[in-house]
Design brief:
The protein has helices at residues 3-19, 23-39, 49-59, 68-72, 105-113, and strands spanning 75-78, 86-90, 93-98. By secondary structure, the chain is α+β, with helices and mostly antiparallel strands. The protein folds into 2 domains: 3-44; 68-113, no CATH class. A 3-stranded antiparallel sheet has the order 1-2-3. Helix 1 runs antiparallel to helix 2.
Length: 118
């Protein structure tokens, strides 16, 4: 089985599990799809991104680890597309990009506290 075939199978199994309220298996197969996508030479957009966006709407807001002070200084975290990449921006200018596996609070805070590269 090729990686693209395995990704399709993992996606199918994840959706099937979710449809049956089997959240643990959904998480397993969604995580497996993400792992395969990271290994694949051709990275596909995350098929679960629409589910994440809906969950964020239900929650009420996109989570932010930035303090009010950081936001007032023009810092923001944005998800420009559905591939799981997160961008740290200052007044719209991209300062750093984090992949699905690299988005950790410590990594974002490290970028915020770094002296300017300009």
């Amino acid at each position: 089985m090729t990686i693209p075939e395995a990704k399709l199978e993992a996606q199918r199994k994840a959706i099937d599990a979710l449809a049956r309220y089997n959240f643990m298996m959904f998480g397993y197969w969604a995580a497996f799809w993400t792992h395969l996508n990271n290994l694949d030479d051709h990275r596909d957009p995350d098929p679960f991104a629409p589910l994440v966006q809906e969950a964020r709407k239900l929650k009420g807001a996109t989570p932010s680890i930035l303090s009010k002070e950081a936001e007032q200084q023009g810092l923001s975290l944005e998800e420009p597309d559905s591939d799981g990449t997160l961008e740290l921006r200052h007044h719209g200018q991209v300062l750093a990009r984090f992949t699905q596996t690299g988005v950790e609070v410590d990594n974002v805070l490290k970028e915020i506290h770094q002296p300017s590269k300009n």
